[in-house]
Amino acid sequence: MTNSPSDPAIDAQRFATLVHEGLVIPPSFRWRVLRLARGLAEVELEDDPAFVRPGGTISGPTLFTLADLTLWAAVLSVIGPQPLAVTAEMAIHFLRRPKPDALVARCEVLKAGRRLVHGDVRIVSRGEPERVVCHATGSYAVPDDGPAVRSSAP
Q1: How far is residue 3 from each of residues 8, 20, 38, measured CA to CA in Å?
Q2: 153 domain residue, yes or no
C-alpha cells in the first residue's frame, strides 16, 4: 500500500515519541493527538488543577504550550519527523476566559515554504467547542537539511 499525497508525513505515535524523547513536559500536561492529517493537527489536553490560575481560568502558559505543541504536530505532518524544526515566532490572543475543562487545539498549516512553515491555531474548551478561547498564529523554521516542502498549503 502506498501513501497518498494527503497522508501526513508523520503519524501520531511517532510525533508523541518525538515529544516524549525531546521535551521535558510536566506529568500534569496530559495530552493526546485526536487527529493528524497532512497540514492539520488536533490535540486534546486533559483538565488539571495545576493549569488554573487565580480567578478560576486556565493560565496563559498552559494555552501557549498547547498552541505550540499543536503547531509543531501540524508542521511535522507536512515536513516529516524533524526534531530540529523550531518555533520561529508565535503570536497568541486570549479571547475568552476558559473555564477549567479539557481543551482541544486545532492547527491548520497555511503555507509550507522551504525555510518556514506557517500555521493557524484555535483552542476551544471541550465543554464549549463552538467558542474559541484562544487564537494563535506561528511559524516553524525548517532545518537546512530538511526535505524540500511545497510552497503552498497542503
Answers
A1: 9, 26, 11
A2: no
Comparing 151 with 6, the larger pLDDT belongs to 6
pLDDT tens digits for 40-60?
Answer: 999 999 999 999 999 999 999
Residue 1 lies in a domain: no
* Domain boundaries, position 88: 12-141
- Residue 26 corresponds to which amino acid? P
How far apart are alpha carbons 105 and 129 in whole angstroms? 10
Q: What are phi and psi of 62, to 5 degrees?
A: -65, -45
How many domains are there within the chain? 1
Report the CATH number at residue 20: 3.10.129.10
Q: Please indicate, yes or no, if residue 2 is contained in any of the structural domains.
A: no
- The answer to whether residue 151 is domain-embedded is no
Measuring CA to CA, which residue among 151, 1, 149 is closest to residue 77? 149
* Residue of 78, 152, 82, 56 lying closest to 111 (CA atoms): 152
How far are the Cα atoms of 4, 16, 53, 121, 139 from residue 7, in angstroms, in the given order? 5, 17, 39, 20, 21
pLDDT class of 143 with cuts at 50, 70, 90: confident
